[in-house]
């Protein structure tokens, strides 16, 4: 069937023009896992490929160079999954569109929402899933797909494990959440840096969400720590520091600076109820902060999409970056569909150089 909806407003050319010019809200995931194309729909991540600097030996002349061991590299392999969502324009929506078009002075905002709203929703939806994948990996080193987090798709029996080493999973000295003033974040930071040093790692950043930042800055230990750096109205006062003051104090002592992750996405369940969530929680629990040497952890691999290389005749297509947007119509009842699709998954080869701190338990990670 020939594509019919909105012919005057929407075709392949102006759909692509719209996507080229449309600026969407910035998300965090490209800072940690920038896009990288792959011709395959499977991946193999070599974990530990970035090794420590092992010193050469001092030897006498005319003596063979000592043979050193090659660092063991582990592999994480799997299939790149497909991320998809679809929006539908019903008969009612189409009637509304026709009414607006027939007006002498059509209400332009409502008309544009009908024409382009589903396109924006599909681009935003795919990006939201990449944001979720990124912060599930960063906050815990694993990804679990459940009826809550992935209602319309695959449910995993076991977590997808990015293979964070046991030695990189650390516990706090005093629980942060129960009594934030009594927490010992600076003590914990020092302990993390000691553990990192023993592993040949030097973190420069620590990721935390807004709730963890609130607990951090309420700590009496933190307020004592930043007093020499916090001049409020010309006076040195103990009070919760702002991020700039806290990071100046941390950096001056050789500790990693804080990067606050302030992002939200929404889940839609099978009943189409929508819930806003913080993706930097694991299993709904707010426990973890993550220490990194570099903000770029790896790549967001994206592979070929079959519909793009084998497009059905009734579909028009355009792309926003690697995200494929498809539009088509149906009959009996008449309806118009918009789909967003991307085959993508993060690859984190430097996970062995990250450390994750459980701020809510002193003995269990």
């Amino acid at each position: 069937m020939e594509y019919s909806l909105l012919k005057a407003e929407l075709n392949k050319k102006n759909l692509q023009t719209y996507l080229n010019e449309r600026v969407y809200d910035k998300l965090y995931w490209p800072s940690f896992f920038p896009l990288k194309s792959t011709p395959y729909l499977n991946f193999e991540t070599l974990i530990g490929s970035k090794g420590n600097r092992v010193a050469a030996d001092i030897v006498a002349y005319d003596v063979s160079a000592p043979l050193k061991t090659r660092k063991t590299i582990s592999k994480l392999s799997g299939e790149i999954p497909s991320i998809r969502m679809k929006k539908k324009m019903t008969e009612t929506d189409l009637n509304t569109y026709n009414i607006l078009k027939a007006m002498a002075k059509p209400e332009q905002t409502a008309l544009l929402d009908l024409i382009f709203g589903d396109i924006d929703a599909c681009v935003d939806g795919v990006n939201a899933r990449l944001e979720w994948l990124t912060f599930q990996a960063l906050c815990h080193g694993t990804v679990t797909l459940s009826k809550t987090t992935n209602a319309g798709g695959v449910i995993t029996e076991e977590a997808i494990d990015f293979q964070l080493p046991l030695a990189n999973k650390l516990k706090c000295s005093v629980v942060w959440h129960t009594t934030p003033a009594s927490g010992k974040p600076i003590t914990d930071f020092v302990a993390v840096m000691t553990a990192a040093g023993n592993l040949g790692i030097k973190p420069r950043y620590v990721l935390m969400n807004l709730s963890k930042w609130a607990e951090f800055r309420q700590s009496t230990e933190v307020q004592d720590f930043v007093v020499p750096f916090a001049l409020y109205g010309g006076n040195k006062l103990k009070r919760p520091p702002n991020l700039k003051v806290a990071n100046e104090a941390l950096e001056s002592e050789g500790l990693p600076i804080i990067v606050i992750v302030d992002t939200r996405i929404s889940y839609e369940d099978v009943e189409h109820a929508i819930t806003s969530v913080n993706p930097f929680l694991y299993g709904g629990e707010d426990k973890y902060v993550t220490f990194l040497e570099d903000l770029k952890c790896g790549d967001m691999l994206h592979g070929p999409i079959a519909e793009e290389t084998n497009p059905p005749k009734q579909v028009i297509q355009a792309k926003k970056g690697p995200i494929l947007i498809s539009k088509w119509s149906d009959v009996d009842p008449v309806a118009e569909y918009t789909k967003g699709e991307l085959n993508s998954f993060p690859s984190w080869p430097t996970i062995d150089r990250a450390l994750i701190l459980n701020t809510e338990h002193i003995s269990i990670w």
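The mean pLDDT is 88. Residues 7 and 14 are 10 Å apart (CA to CA).
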